[in-house]
Design brief:
mainly beta; seven-stranded mixed β-sheet; Immunoglobulin-like; 11 strands; 53% strand; four-stranded antiparallel β-sheet; 179 residues
C-alpha cells in the first residue's frame, strides 16, 4: 500500500499501520486437524486444539522542521516499541534506546531484532534484549534504513476468544552519519 500524507505543521508525527485483530483456530473434525479463521467462542461444539489471537503493527516517525516528543509516548497497544531516544535523531555509533511495552507495562527479557536495508531480509544486523525496565540500547554500524522488530507470544489471559496471544510489532528508522 502506498499513501501520501501532507504534513504541514512543524513537529514529529507518528505514522502507523495495523494488521487488524485476527483469530485463527486449529480444530479436529472427523479425526482430522484443520485451521479455521474463527475465535474459540465461535466454535461451540467443536474440538479445539488451539486458538490464537494475532495482531501486528508497523510504526515510523517523521519530523518536519522541529523535533517534538508528544507522539513518542506509549499508546497502551498489545505490544509496542517505544523510542526513549528521539527516533529522528539516530546517528551511527550513538546509542538509540527503546522500551518494549505490552498494554502499558514494560516487557523484560524481550528480544529486539534489527534488520538493515542492505541485508537479504533474513539476516539480522543486531539483536538486543530488554532489561528489567523493558529497555535496550541499539548502536547502528552504518547509515541507512533499519527495521526493528519484537514478537510476543503468551497465554491469553481471561479470554473467551483465544488460548494464545501472538503480537508482532516493527519500527522503521533512519540512521544518519555521525554529526
Amino acid at each position: 500500500t502506498v499513501g501520501e500524507i501532507k504534513l504541514r505543521e512543524p513537529g514529529t508525527y507518528r505514522i502507523e499501520t495495523d494488521h487488524p485483530v485476527q483469530y485463527v483456530a486449529e480444530i479436529e473434525v472427523d479425526g482430522k486437524k484443520r485451521w479455521v479463521g474463527k475465535s474459540k467462542d465461535q466454535l461451540s461444539g467443536k474440538k479445539i486444539i488451539q486458538s490464537t489471537h494475532r495482531w501486528s503493527q508497523t510504526t515510523t516517525f517523521i519530523t518536519v522542521k522541529k523535533y517534538t516528543k508528544r507522539v513518542l509516548e506509549p499508546t497502551g497497544a498489545f505490544l509496542e516499541i517505544v523510542p526513549v531516544t528521539h527516533p529522528n535523531k539516530i546517528f551511527v555509533g550513538k546509542p538509540f534506546v527503546v522500551r518494549v511495552m505490552s498494554r502499558g507495562q514494560s516487557v523484560s527479557d524481550q528480544k529486539v531484532h534489527v534488520y538493515s536495508e542492505m541485508d537479504s531480509g533474513h539476516d539480522v544486523t543486531l539483536v538486543a534484549v530488554t532489561n528489567a525496565d523493558g529497555e535496550c540500547e541499539l548502536t547502528f554500524p552504518s547509515p541507512g534504513m533499519y527495521l526493528l522488530t519484537a514478537n510476543l507470544r503468551q497465554d491469553a489471559k481471561d479470554s473467551a476468544r483465544a488460548n494464545i496471544d501472538v503480537f508482532n510489532v516493527s519500527m522503521l528508522v533512519e540512521v544518519r552519519k555521525k554529526k
